[in-house]
TrEMBL record:
Organism: Pseudodesulfovibrio portus
Protein's name in the database: Response regulator
Keywords: Phosphoprotein, Two-component regulatory system
Ranges where the Response regulatory domain occurs: 4-118
Pfam families in UniProt: Response_reg
InterPro entries, sorted: Bact_response_regulator (IPR050595), CheY-like_superfamily (IPR011006), Sig_transdc_resp-reg_receiver (IPR001789)
Post-translational modification 4-aspartylphosphate, affected residues: D53
Source species, domain of life: Bacteria
PROSITE patterns: RESPONSE_REGULATORY
């Protein structure tokens, strides 16, 4: 099963190059170059992982991560940045980011992290489904 990924970055050339490299590896990749287009993409689709740029002009990655976690708390987010700081990395992880990587990210390493994100999301979905089934069965007299 191919991984569904939303790639968010304001640098169009980088966005196109990285999405092409990810698609060659069999991933289903959608892109967003602005915060508004990213929010619209998130509200209308399901993703296994989001790869998010830390520095964007309309909303920085930390603010976007907060907005994503409010609306989609189970979403697996990997932050990418060309301006990494320890503080930003720690803040991102505290806010629920799955990982934090520096640009240019090694595509093999990024691919592995996306596969882990997909597996983690599948476990979360399975647990939620099992909980719902258990809840339904406990309220029905079957």
């Amino acid at each position: 099963m191919s991984e569904k990924v939303l790639l968010i970055d304001d640098e169009e050339e980088f966005l196109n190059a990285l999405s092409e490299r990810m698609e060659i590896r069999g991933m289903d990749v959608k892109t967003a170059a602005t915060a508004d287009s990213a929010v619209a993409a998130l509200d209308n689709n399901e993703y296994d992982a989001i790869v998010l740029d830390l520095q964007m002009p309309d909303m920085n990655g930390i603010e976007m991560l907060k907005a994503i976690k409010v609306r989609h708390p189970d979403m697996q987010v990997i932050l990418l940045t060309g301006h990494a700081t320890v503080e930003a990395g720690i803040q991102a992880m505290k806010l629920g980011a799955m990982d934090f990587m520096e640009k240019p990210a090694d595509i093999e390493s990024l691919t592995e992290k996306i596969k882990k994100a997909q597996a983690k999301k599948m476990v979360i979905v399975e647990k939620k489904t099992a909980s719902k089934v258990s809840d339904i069965l406990s309220h029905k007299g079957w």
